[in-house]
TrEMBL record:
Belongs to the CobT family. Keywords: Cobalamin biosynthesis, Glycosyltransferase, Transferase. Catalyzes the synthesis of alpha-ribazole-5'-phosphate from nicotinate mononucleotide (NAMN) and 5,6-dimethylbenzimidazole (DMB). This is Nicotinate-nucleotide--dimethylbenzimidazole phosphoribosyltransferase. Its EC number is 2.4.2.21. One of its GO terms (molecular function) is nicotinate-nucleotide-dimethylbenzimidazole phosphoribosyltransferase activity.
Length: 335
């Protein structure tokens, strides 16, 4: 159970987070160098396996128990007409997740992941951030705690996903506040708004930036973010505490993750970017965080879908690293 009841206590927890296991890191690098392949021939899979080993604290790790957590939230800023879909879709999609009918259900099954869904007070949307802070400190802390406690300590990989009509506007506002620029630099089509819709989203983000002047990352999360973003922040931080590597999903997930990186540099070292979303500014956001996406499939769904698809890549990397024979074992001459 997490021990924080204010945003500053949460920030203090981040400062105490564990780092990579240096011994496992060196052991995995040495093992990688002995495997039956030309050096570097498995490209990024080698780097990924070594990264995973270093966080799991095992030179030869396994990846058997991935967990996907999806957080759902509703946004007061929908009153500004920022989405192509109505807010009730958030709750309807939660029911769809629970009945197994969404894309993420199929992806979770495909990659052998356990999937948990947490709906965060959907009947009590956040406030419209063009008028007032999206959340009180108590609401933001409650969402962080939901996220923290959603992580299964026995999982060996976490994918964080979300569902929330209006949250590409929220994510853009958080990104603009933390990474710089104006609304127009960060807004995109989301679920499918037209050019006038994009201009409206830019206006809404600019109004939010003008009203909420603090650039302290956890204040930005509280004033411009949403419950599902805060829950993803809490879950990613909890994963670090448990030494569980994380695959980030798309635009909204990455915006949430940037709150951690801006609070404490290196707070996302246990995370890899699963994919590059079709939401226009996602690439710029990943660049700002120094994250290179594993996949680029034109996805713009959310739900953790791009992160889930990347489980396959990470499983492949770990299987090769931990299962291959060394030159000595296989009697293959090295170069
Ligand atoms: O993950 C992404 O990159 C992504 C990009 C575009 C849309 N979405 C999903 O679409 C919803 C937000 O879109 P919108 O237009 O309502 O802001 C929300 O449920 C997200 O999961 C997600
Ligand atoms: C149908 C639908 C499914 C989604 N899944 C994540 N965001 C979504 C938004 C919509 C509109």
């Amino acid at each position: 159970m997490a021990q924080f009841s204010t945003l500053s206590e949460f920030a203090a927890l981040l400062a105490a987070a564990p780092d990579v296991d240096a011994q496992a890191l060196v052991g995995a690098q040495e093992r990688n160098a002995q495997l039956t392949k030309p050096p570097g021939a498995l490209g990024r899979l080698e780097e990924l396996a070594i990264w995973y080993a270093s966080w799991r604290g095992a030179e030869r790790p396994s990846l058997d128990a991935p967990q996907i957590v999806i957080f759902a939230g509703n946004h007061g800023v929908c009153a500004q007409g920022v989405s192509a879909f109505p807010p009730e879709v958030t709750e309807q999609m939660v029911a769809n997740f629970e009945h197994g009918g969404a894309a993420i259900n199929q992806l979770a099954k495909t990659f052998g992941a356990k999937m948990d869904v947490h709906a965060l007070e959907l009947d009590r949307p956040t406030a419209d951030f063009t008028q007032e802070p999206a959340m009180s400190e108590a609401d933001c802390v409650a969402a962080l705690l939901t996220g923290w406690n959603a992580v299964d300590a026995s999982a060996d990989l976490l994918v964080t996903g979300e569902m929330g009509i209006g949250n590409t506007t929220t994510g853009a506002a958080v990104a603009a506040a933390l990474l710089g620029g104006a609304g127009a630099d960060w807004v995109g089509r989301g679920t499918g708004v037209d050019d006038a819709g994009i201009a409206n989203k830019a206006r809404v983000v600019d109004e939010g930036l003008a009203l909420h002047k603090s650039r302290v990352p956890l204040d930005v999360l509280r004033c411009l973010g949403g419950r599902e973003l805060a829950a993803m922040v809490g879950a990613i931080a909890a994963a670090r505490a448990h030494r569980i590597p994380v695959i980030l999903d798309g635009f909204i997930c990455t915006a949430a993750a940037s709150v951690l990186e801006k609070t404490r540099a290196g707070a996302l070292d246990h995370c890899v970017a699963g994919h590059l979303s079709a939401e226009g500014a996602h690439g710029k956001m990943l660049d700002a965080l120094g994250k290179k996406p594993l996949l680029s499939l034109g996805l713009r769904l959310g739900e953790g879908s791009g992160g889930a698809a990347a489980i396959g890549v990470l499983k492949a990397a770990v299987a090769c690293h931990s299962g291959m024979a060394t030159f000595a074992e296989a009697g293959v001459s090295d170069g």
